[in-house]
Amino acid sequence: MRFLVLLMALSLGTAYCFPAPPKKTAYRPRVYSVEQLRSDFAVLRKTLEERHPSLYRYVPREKMNQQFDSVFRQLYRPMTEVEFRDLLRPLIVQIRCGHTDVQESLYTSRSTRKPQPEWLPFDIILQNDRLFIGRNRSTDSSLICGTEVLKLGNYPVKDIIQAARDRWPSDGYNQTFKNYFLELYHLEDTYWRHFSGRSPWTLTVRDTTGTERLTTVRRRPVASGDLQTSPAPATVKRSKKSRHRTEASYDEDDAKLQLMRSLHFINSDSTAAMLIINSFGYERYQSFHREVFETLEKQKVQDLVIDLRQNTGGNAEIGSDLMSYLMKSDFRQVDRAECRVRRPNACSYFDRKEKRVLRQNFRFMRAEGGRYHFGKSNVGWNKPASEHRFTGRVYILTSGRTFSAASIFTASLKAQRTVTIIGQETGGGEAGCNGGIIQTLTLPETRLRVRFPVFWIATASRNPDQGRGVMPDYSIEYTVRDRIKQRDRDLEKALELIQSGKRKMTLR
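RE: above sequence
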């Protein structure tokens, strides 16, 4: 009996020698003191005042200083990184620069324990500050496409849209660029962060018959029919020692390039073509452009539609090379690149790699009017292509997504030759934008990252800077039904104008 008691005691003692599995701790963000927050804010303000190329372009210095002072007065209590960022974002938006934004620290962005946004269980369509349901993935199957959402929880949709706009940057007074990102994810992110939007979601909706009702929805479980059944293409891994690319890797690259740029004929006699460029980010662009315009010349194409509706920018040199085939004489795409300081990379808080790229790609040219002008191959006058130049009619399709290098291309081309713009106001400014190379300022205490450009990139447009994008010659308004049916009214208008031009030529 004594032996059994000793054995039981030994067993219990051994059991308590092994630690229990660690409990998953709740996410606890670091809290920063008032002194740390004010120190970071001082660094941010000083850097922007010294180096941002357009800090006072659309907002008077006195008003901008009032905005800075207002934020500083709110730094009277400790805050988390998220709270500090939420305080800074409306301030940064006041600069009215689509390339300037406050991003979370690398530590937070890489954290696997931080709370993740909960996305609404349906696609959203914004129409004149109203929200409609697109594809429905919720548990309420009666929410058909076109159903209007009046409230999310207890909050009117208009209030959430306005809060999202107040926290998202754009060039000047443009709104089409903001609308694109609100639809993409920013409205949902704002609802989750600032209005506690969580599943299950309570919606006040108005259906297509005008009936209003309240419904509570969750995300519908993913069914087999919702998933793609075709297998994903296998990724081909190449040896580091191999200097030759495999045939499979070429196919993979070609597929990606086709998504970025492609050429199609859009009428029966192949005299009209559409060049789709979804990004100025493709390699071997010189050979691609040469092949495109050689093809247009051989086919005797008279009308060219350039689709830039999905193009948020990229390498401006691609735009210059493309533009060389559309001009008869010397032209300018980037009129000038100017900076507020002579050494734009001389800041201890900037990212080192970005500083090196800036030093290698730009050279100082001259000082003029308190600005420093920098040179690059595509800045200033450029020569047209020596052959295969297109002299026919050009139509450009634009939207709020047409931004940065794409809007620079559109504005400068419109200023120097006859083109027809169809669609929406471009997201990027007609007069120019802040760009070139984007620098990352890492605040020393909170490690928040503030990304902003160091150059003002001016286009060839001579119109006064009104803080707006390139306005279309034919403004196209889409209805909710158009969006649901995926109707391409921009292209329809281009084809109508092309056909009208052909009829006029026939009458002559």
